[in-house]
Amino acid sequence: MKKMNLVDAPTPKTGTHTTRMILGGMDCSDCEIVLEHRLKRMDGVIDVEANFNDRSLEVEYDRRQVSRRLIEKRVRQMGYEPEPGRLARWIGENAEILLSLVSGLLLFLGWTGRLSRLLPPGSETWFYVGAYLPAGYVVGREVLHSLRSRQFDTDLLMFAAALGAASLGQFAEGAILLFLFSLGHALQERALGRAREAVRALARLAPRLALARRDGREDLLPVEKLTLEDLVIVRAGERLPVDGEVVLGQSYVDESPITGESLPVEKSPGTKVFAGSLNADGTLEVRVTRLAQDSTLARVLKMVEQAQGSRSPIQLKVEQFTRIFVPIALAVFLFLLAYPVLAGLPFKPGFITAVTFLVATSPCALALGTPSAILSGIAQAARNGVLVKGGAYLEQLGGLKAVAFDKTGTLTLGKPHVTEVVALPGQLEEDILELAASVEGRSNHPLAQAIIDEAAERGLKPTAAAEVENLTGRGMRARQDGRVVWVGGMTLWEEQSLKLPESLRQRIQELEAQGKTVVLVGDAEGAVGLIAITDTLRPEAAAVVRALPALGVDHTVMLSGDNRRAAAEIAAQVGLSEYRAELLPEEKLASVNELVQAYGSVGMVGDGINDAPALAQATVGIALGSAQNDIALEAADVALMAPDLRKLPFAIGLGKAVQRITLQNLVVSLGSILILAGLSLAGALGIGATVLLHEGTTLLVVANALRLFGFKQGDPTLI
After folding, report:
1. Is CB count within 10 Å lower at the N or C end of the chain?
2. What are the residue numbers of the active site?
3. How far apart are CA 84 and CA 98, in angstroms?
4. pLDDT tens-digit profile of 127-150?
């Protein structure tokens, strides 16, 4: 049992609160159904979400009708322990393995007592019966959960086999079965707990207390008590308690727990910082921009928890197979029981064969092989700054055949700058730049920001234009000083049939041949000048594209709204298979559809600002630099938290590793069932040996899945 960790946070709804707790005694996935069903029936409870993977329970309730104390009381009545003492907590955490060991000890005493003849003849049976009780409690509890949810699973098969052995007086065999099964179950939970612990460790990074400055005083406050605009002081060597913006001080901050970025990032006034990151040297004064429950770390953890609770397509197929297979196994078991009676053969040998067959066909390894791999893969991705929002996307990552990239902000750094301003005779460069900045002030496009920044650097003070209209993918239209003004590329000029002097046309060709983007500025009479803008290629872009073919990605393409010459220059530098330029947003969407039709499984990589439709249309939408971008974090299927393309090969490689390990586990699991079933029907294996091999196979597939925690980019043993 785990100690409850309560966070009682007000929600935007009047009078409502949200309580989150880590429960003790939540030891199977059926607990989710039981908890949610029972608690939702309480007056005043609005919503309940239980998650077996991290043993959490979140309850939203109306405090005018019900209190947290009453919710805790109901939780205790259901058999879960909110706040155990230290000894009780240790016993609860190790209850399954302790009960299994007690069962094993009684079994050992009975066996050694019979062999050594220290016990009276027949008295060893009482030890075997005693061994049934602790191990039977562990297994029986799982059976009850299954029966309540009307499911037939492996626990029911094993329990039925043990009872069958007891009915024939085979208490030793039944005790061995229950002991090994309960011990295997406990060890499996320990192993899977490692995957859950990897995520919980992230949650513990953010401090629970913060040194806040209010009204000239400095006080240590719980982070839940901080409000927006509070000032928090973070000294060297301390972790940041909240998301915020630096207002004073300069330091290097290790953001690897959030973004996976290995090198510390320099922070100075005006830069963003994230809860859970480590302040390396200087003291920082940070203004709170997000409440504790809304921090990037908290949101990532929430998404990872939801992802770990999701089911991948392979897992769903395995569950469907299990639902069909278990009743068939039970039917064969019943036939094996009935056949000796109908054929006039001795009942006992036939019964032992039937019970052994039941153990052999229990699909424990099959049921655990896929979810353990998915759980480990999602946890390992999160530890390395990659947020995968579900097992389905992790599987699909490993099967990508083509990857499409946005250009600005993805293949480039997304910080374009003006290289030159060209004005027609009779016009001034400053006038061209000021006019463009007055129109672009309403746009959030990186090119617009480059124009605004250049105007500011030159000391210009553009006035806001009126009637501004954003012509998506083309440019802007506005009214300034009584005239209609156009700012955009060649597509806009041709669409509006605007005049373009030959001298500017030639200059455009020269600039585009250099890989620059040209923005034309003019009015109803035609262009009056142009602004040339360039962006810097990401230094890692070419290496990332070169790494993709080894991961099974056969085709790479850039989708850009820029002119063809600029797009061709970037594509050549990066080494892409193909580029498509001068695309409107709807044309990007159509291009992704074409790629899906051609290659089947396509990933779309973008910064999430203007790529949301294309990200949604791709097989897997992958957003870059999501820690800085709320839209990307919510919209993408996979979020690379740092603005670092090197995480892309890692994510695809991890997906392929998960696919391979899942396949290995399925082969081992199904092979084990077939071999053990055949040997049991042939009478070549007894109950004890079958249980031992059965549980060994189950532990083997879980251990194989845990190898994913050692995955590193380019690891040939896992890809």
Report:
1. C
2. 406
3. 18
4. 888 888 888 887 777 777 666 666
